[in-house]
Amino acid sequence: MKISIQSEKFDSGRQGIEEHVKARSDLITRSLEDGAAIVLEQARKNVSGLVLNSRSGRLRGSLMADRAVQQGDTFSAWVGSKLWSRSGAINYGAVWEFGARGAVIRPNRAKALRWPGMNGKPVFSSIARRPAQAPRPWLGPAVENNISRIEDLLNRIYDDEQT
After folding, report:
1. What are phi and psi for residue 36, nearest 5 degrees?
2. Region for residue 61 given its phi and psi (left: phi exceeds 0; alpha: psi -120 to 50; beta: otherwise)
3. What whole-number distance in Å separates Cα of residue 24 and Cα of residue 134?
4. What single-letter DSSP state applies at residue 46?
5. What is the pLDDT of residue 82?
6. The CA-based dihedral angle spanning residues 87, 90, 92, 95, taken in that order and rounded to the nearest 10 degrees
7. What element of type H or E holds 75?
8. The whole model's pTM is what?
9. Closest Cα partner for 147 from 36, 70, 41?
10. What is the pLDDT of residues 38-82, one digit of tens each?
11. Residues 6+ apart with CB under 8 A from 34
């Protein structure tokens, strides 16, 4: 998820922005990391029963925030989950965030699919259906509900300079 926050503090054009960024890149990076920590905290609450009910805690345990990085005059911080399904085909957090289409599952290398049945004996089938899943956003709202706090952190850099 990409977040863009624009500042209305600069009226001196591109040169003013570049000078501001160059002089304060450490403060901007630190403020973005603080903002990412706020979003991470809210996302953990969201997957702990506020939006999603936690069964195993794997999604909550996989949430992380990477350090903020600067490329030119662009700063970014990543918050999310790097938890993938056992097959490596599905990002588990993304399925909850954006939903998933239903699918028909067929065997790749064998004549039938096999999984443990209710009584412990194997069940065989030539086809299985995975139902569609409606989106249940947990990360987007964590960002949206905290945009003003992140803006405040970034604006504080400029406001401290004015006092």
Report:
1. -65, -35
2. alpha
3. 43
4. I
5. 83
6. -150
7. strand 74-76
8. 0.75
9. 36
10. 999 999 999 998 898 888 888 999 999 989 888 877 888 999 988
11. 153
d(CA 38, CA 64): 11
pLDDT category of residue 11 using cuts at 50, 70 and 90: very low
End-to-end CA separation in angstroms for the chain? 35
Show the tokens assigned to 94.
């993304």
Output the CA torsion sign for 46, 50, 51, 54.
positive
**The 3-state secondary structure of the chain, one letter per residue:** CCCCCCCCCCCCHHHHHHHHHHHHHHHHHHHHHHHHHHHHHHHHHHHHHHCCCCCCCHHHHHEEECCCEEECCEEECCEEECCECCCCCCEHHHHHHHCECCEEECCCCCCCEEEECCCCCEEEECCEEECCECCCCCCHHHHHCCHHHHHHHHHHHHHHHHC
Partners of residue 128 on adjacent β-strands: 105
Tokens read off for 80: 């999310």
**DSSP β-bridge partners for residue 79:** 65
Compute CA 123 distance to the chain's CA centroid, rounded to the nearest angstrom: 36
Top pLDDT among 11 and 75 is at 75
